[in-house]
Every structure is written in structure tokens, then in C-alpha cells.
Fold this sequence. Notes:
mainly beta; Immunoglobulin-like; four-stranded antiparallel beta sheet; 2 helices; 11 strands; 38% strand
Amino acid sequence: MAAWVGALAIAATAAAAEPELLPPEQAFPFSARALDDRVLEARFTVADGYYLYRDKFKFALDPQPRDYAPPPLPPGKVKDDEFFGKVETYRGEVVVKIPLPVSMAGQSIVMTADSQGCADLGVCYPVNRQQVTLVVPAAGKGPGPVVEAHPKKKRWFQ
């Protein structure tokens, strides 16, 4: 009986020592805002111990302006990845400016952002699609509010 209790205690300790992976919306939170009537800003805040692949980013807008082109991405850090070989990755905060070919002042735009990343523990996530709806401000009115794809829920007693 004592051996069984000891084995159970060891198993419980080993299970408690295994780190838990964050859900993708917590590992790679996404937010966006309209900087003005011609530029949108997409932002990922990558949790410590996680990274995103540069070549897995895709952005879509609805409605999509005529002559829309994929935005330029900031350079990443080169990593020799066990899954994908030599790739560029992002850690920390990643900001992408999305130029609009025409003014979209006053319009509501749905921005969809696809990304894929991994935990340093060696676990990779499938492509993660996140979406926000932005209202584009009038020219000269300054940036619109930051919109989070998965806002934190407010608790009663904080």
C-alpha cells in the first residue's frame, strides 16, 4: 500500500512539473486599430516562451479596397527551426502597418489575421485566425481605438 501511495505522489509531482501550454489567443494575442483613413495597424503581443513565423502571416480586409496589396512585414529573427528549416520568427511585439490604397474614412472594416507559431517547448500550433472590426476615422481625426480580438473578461473582484 505504501508503495502505491508513493508512486501516486511521484506521478502527481511529475504532472504538476509539466508546463501547460497557453491557448493560442493568449500565446499570440491580436489587436488592431485604424491609424488614420489610409493606414491600419495590426499588432501581435507574443507571450514569453513563444514565437510566430513571419512567412505564415496573412491579412484580409472586408470590404477589400480595390488595388489592395499584402502589407510589408517587418524583418524577423532568423531561426534554424526543427519543423520548417531556416525561417524568420517574431517574439515580443510585432506591429504591421497596412496601407490602404484609397481613403476608407467612416467605413467599418473587418480585418482577419492568420498567423502560426510555436512554444519553445517544441509544440507548434495550427494556423490561428483572429478577427476584429475597425471603424476608420475621418481624415485628420487621429487614430481610432485599439480593438482586441479576444478582450480579457472583467471580473467582479479585482
